[in-house]
Amino acid sequence: MRHWTEELFKDNPKLFLSILRELNPQARTEVRDILKLLETQGHKPERILDLNCGIGRHSMEMGKRGIKVLGTDLSPAYIEIARKRARRRKVEDKVSFQVVDMRQIQTALAKEEPFDGILCLWTSFGFYDDDTNDDVLRQCLKLVKPGGFFALDIVNRDWVLLNFSERSFEWIKDRLILYERQFDAQTSRHKEKRTFMRQVDENTLVLDGTFQMDLRVWSLHELMLLFKRAGWKFECAYPGSSLAHGIREVRFALPHDELLEAGRLLIISSKPIPG
User: What is the pLDDT of residues 71-121, one digit of tens each?
Assistant: First the structure.
C-alpha cells in the first residue's frame, strides 16, 4: 500500500498545488524573518538544504539573497515547476532542485558537501511513524557541518488541542476546500481529510479530488526531546510562519498561554561541535 505522501505528492500533485501557489506572496517575508532569527543564533548560512521544498518558494527567495540552495522534494511535478520558476527568476546559478524522498535523504545526497544548515518549513515533517521521523533527523545530522543548524517550522500540538475543530472549510480563489479532522491524543497523530471542489459557475461546484493526511504533531518539550534523540542540540524556539506579528521568542519564562497561542513553532537546533 502506497503511503499517503506518495499518493498526494507523486500521483495527485495538482490537488495541493493551489495551496502552494496561494502561499507564494508570503515567502519573501518568511525568508527575511527566518534568516534574521538564524542570525540572532549566530548562523549566517552560505549554503542551505531546503528539505521538502515544494515548488521552491523559499529556495528562490534565499537565492535572491545570494545563498546557495539545494531544494529537495518527493514530488517530481513540484520539482519541475520549481526549476522552471528558478530559470524565469534567473536564480538557477544559486538554486538547484532534486527529487528526493526524505526517508533516503542521506543516501541521495551522499556526494554533496556538508551544508551550513537545513530548513524544513510549513509542517513538511511528521509524515511517518516515530522511528522513521527520528531516522530522518539522524540522517540530516550527517549532512550539515559541525555547528550547522536545522530549522523546523511545524504546527504546535498544544495549539491544535486548544483550537481543534472536526470540520471547517475555506475558499482559495475558485476552489472550495472542505476539512474533516480526527486527533488521537494517545499517538499525537492528526488525521485530516481534504476535499477539493472547483467552482465552474455561480451555482455549480465539481469535485477535483480528496486526500487524507496523517501527521505526527509535537509540543515544544517533545520537539526538544525529538531533536536530542537524533543527536541535535536544541537552541531556541519562536512562533513559526506568521512572523509578521513580530519576533517573539518562546521562552519558558513566558506565561503558559503565550506558548499555547503559537499556532506554529520554529525550532532551531544545531549539530554539536566536537570537543
Answer: 999 999 999 999 999 999 999 999 999 999 999 999 999 999 999 999 999
Q: Is this model's pTM higher than 0.90 or not?
A: yes
Mean pLDDT by 10 residues, the chain (275 residues): 94 92 89 91 97 97 98 98 97 98 98 98 96 98 98 93 93 93 96 96 94 95 96 90 44 49 89 93
At position 232, the amino acid (one-letter code) is: W
What the block records as the C-alpha cell of 173 is 480563489
Provide φ and ψ at 239, rounded to 5°. Answer: -60, 135
**Assigned C-alpha cell, 131:** 522511528
State the pairing for strand pair 167-172/175-184: antiparallel
Rounded to 5°, angle at Cα 220 from 215 and 222: 70
DSSP state, 142? T
Query: In angstroms, rounded to a whole number, what is the distance separating the alpha carbons of residues 136 and 123?
Result: 14
Give the DSSP H or E segment for 70. Answer: strand 68-73
CATH of region 4-159+218-270, choose from 3.30.428.10, 3.40.50.150, 3.30.1330.40, 3.10.620.30: 3.40.50.150
Tell me what percent of the chain is helix, strand and coil, each rounded to the nearest 5: 35, 35, 30
Residues 6+ apart with CB under 8 A from 259: 156, 158, 220, 250
The 10s digit of each residue's pLDDT in 203-231 is 999 999 999 999 999 999 999 999 999 99
Give me the helix-helix angle, 220-229 and 130-141, nearest 10°.
60
